[in-house]
Fold this sequence. Notes:
Structural class: mainly beta
Amino acid sequence: xxxxxxxxxxxxxxxxxxxxxxxxxxxxxxxxxxxxxxxxxxxxxxxxxxxxxxxxxxxxxxxxxxxxxxxxxxxxxxxxxxxxxxxxxxxxxxxxxxxxxxxxxxxxxxxxxxxxxxxxxxxxxxxxxxxxxxxxxxxxxxxxxxxxxxxxxxxxxxxxxxxxxxxxxxxxxxxxxxxxxxxxxxxxxxxxxxxxxxxxxxxxxxxxxxxxxxxxxxxxxxxxxxxxxxxxxxxxxxxxxxxxxxxxxxxxxxxxxxxxxxxxxxxxxxxxxxxxxxxxxxxxxxxxxxxxxxxxxxxxxxxxxxxxxxxxxxxxxxxxxxxxxxxxxxxxxxxxxxxxxxxxxxxxxxxxxxxxxxxxxxxxxxxxxxxxxxxxxxxxxxxxxxxxxxxxxxxxxxxxxxxxxxxxxxxxxxxxxxxxxxxxxxxxxxxxxxxxxxxxxxxxxxxxxxxxxxxxxxxxxxxxxxxxxxxxxxxxxxxxxxxxxxxxxxxxxxxxxxxxxxxxxxxxxxxxxxxxxxxxxxxxxxxxxxxxxxxxxxxxxxxxxxxxxxxxxxxxxxxxxxxxxxxxxxxxxxxxxxxxxxxxxxxxxxxxxxxxxxxxxxxxxxxxxxxxxxxxxxxxxxxxxxxxxxxxxxxxxxxxxxxxxxxxxxxxxxxxxxxxxxxxxxxxxxxxxxxxxxxxxx
Length: 682
């Protein structure tokens, strides 16, 4: 048995250390280029499936929650240009592009793709063909949760290229439904006596629909224009039944209902024109969002209402962005980029919380910072410069100055001006088959406006306080990256990093016995990552490919209650994702597994840990009756793992090292099956 295991491992190491000559990809300068023919084996239907098959590349999506445009960038550009939208994520954008319209894929460092990407070790450029006419994709998915009806959703998109202009329109409808069962057990500490048992059943329905359109015009070098629009509407509903059996108390049946409705409209565009020896680009973006939240908890026994809680929230968000960038490709060996961004943001929130009596009457409950208006005006001028020092050696520098004016009004008032300098530098060295990068930068996290607002969590029987005095977390970040090809078209990539963090954003005590998002002292973050993507042809597995991604992020900050070092709230110490797929002409199959130890929220009077059994496994089987059609059967949670939550309570807070109550939750969603039909045309 040891020989059977050892031989493939030795073969893998030998091929990695002594790779054969000749590779499926081509190196052009600092970039690795994959022609469309490289992906023929995988028979991709869309650009998304094609990008997912790029060796060693991991998609980093657009951060839709970040205010402004510059910091929200993912790591994909199309024809060298970043999409001038934030509401659509990269998976959605790439899923609308037929694979047949992709000429090639380029992967390399971020220099040359704009200020948002300078210093990034990996950015993917999707180069489309010049083919005229109509092309598109259509997808239908049937999804069967463990309990409930079969749900249908899908998407369709069309791309028309005529002359120098391209037009696209897309419709997306997502119709997710999840059911789970479980039990909560409450016991005393340290004795472990049973206090209460809660048997719960949750059913959620989460439909969302959106329509988007776009127009682009390519008038030649540095003469381009784009216009994008999107409208989305969604609704999330949760129904929970909760049979509660207290020891020595009255058995009751609690009911929880949540109904969230949201609407969002976005309009954006950009125009590029020559200016001097370079080009100037103007980006404009406006987003408007409305959300309504209704929640109700009723405690009942023998058909009689004992009491309850209800909460209503109306929230409006508005963002307007203007970004101007002038870039000079090369002068005296230096590439230069100058620009600035101006952002106006506003959040209006109104929260009403009521206690429901046995007679059905409602009594208002006062919350600190329940009604507030948060406004921000922010400007960010920046400069980026880079040059080639020698063959295979490049250096890049950047400096951004961020200044913002933040005001809070309503139940509390606050006003302050924040200013930060954000320098960065990176050194890229490519020698032989190795690609190395060293990067250092100062980062400033954005504030989540929702953290200024108090809101009850009825599902968790607690209240989140709002904090008008919150300031951004900052850090000095240092990262070393090394990458090299193995086994022909395979890639191995490692990262080591250290972040020195100031004003760690976590949870702090506020008035009224609550806790809220706030700032702790200084902290550290140690990072180690390994990414492995290898073909298995040489190991005797035709069409086989294995992937493995491991991430270790060890955080440390002093707790304000215990005065001892602990991890940051909400951070997972490690992640391990491993996958295998085999493409055999018209057939393909694969398995993916995901493992992590969970994460903990350190609150004022409790430690709240969420975790699951490992690993979480998905499997698929795919049939391609023709080059334009793909039929995929997928099973999620193949091992039927359970999800857990552990809450440990302290009184009056965690400065008391002895907890008094323990709550352990078990949930099980079971296996979910789906069948997807995807068709491309044009």
